[in-house]
Write a structure and sequence with these properties.
The protein is mostly helical and about 180 residues long. The protein contains eight helices and two strands; from the N terminus they run H-H-H-H-H-H-H-E-E-H.
């Protein structure tokens, strides 16, 4: 787990050594275990660790490489989280998985499962993304693993698929009514 020492010390990554020392002394006095009002062993240890890394030019240079890598990962996460198309796509994939498993259950109630590879092929969703959707649907109780290891829709999943279909039909009907 990466710890952002700059954020911990509330300083810029461009801070000079004097600033690092000044801020360290402030936080060290504030969180020192001997301080009855604001002492905090854990926080004090973190502050000392951050200071020891950032005050040493070699350690700081090594840390800055990790910092930039972590910053890139955070930026990617933020960009993906703000992309509403990705969330919409996820909803569509989950609905498609439920629909596939719904039809399979309806076609053969005694053998309702679809294997992982087949779900990947039918949904058009790559394995690394499919795992997330299967986890979600399983955690909601809408799908489950069968005895032979395939996925099948549950009663709750059928209810969910039916309620989504009814909701979409209602919206379509309302739109058509307003078009007249």
């Amino acid at each position: 787990m990466f710890t952002d020492y700059y954020e911990l010390l509330e300083i810029s990554p461009n801070a000079n050594s004097e600033t690092i020392e000044r801020i360290f002394r402030y936080f060290a006095m504030r969180y020192h275990p001997d301080n009855r009002d604001t002492g905090d062993d854990s926080r004090f240890s973190e502050i000392v660790e951050a200071h020891n890394t950032l005050k040493d030019p070699v350690k700081r240079a090594q840390y800055d490489i990790q910092y930039r890598d972590n910053l890139g990962l955070r930026r990617e996460l933020t960009e993906e989280a703000s992309n509403t198309k990705g969330l919409e796509r996820d909803v569509v994939i989950q609905a498609k998985l439920l629909a596939l498993l719904y039809v399979r259950r309806r076609q053969d109630v005694n053998n309702p499962g679809i294997g992982d590879d087949e779900l990947e092929r039918l949904s058009g969703c790559p394995r690394e993304h499919l795992d997330f959707h299967l986890w979600y649907l399983k955690a909601k109780g809408w799908i489950a693993r069968t005895e032979n290891g395939t996925f099948a829709i549950t009663v709750e999943g059928i209810d969910r698929a039916n309620s989504e279909h009814r909701r979409e039909a209602t919206i379509t009907t309302k739109l058509l009514d307003h078009a007249d």
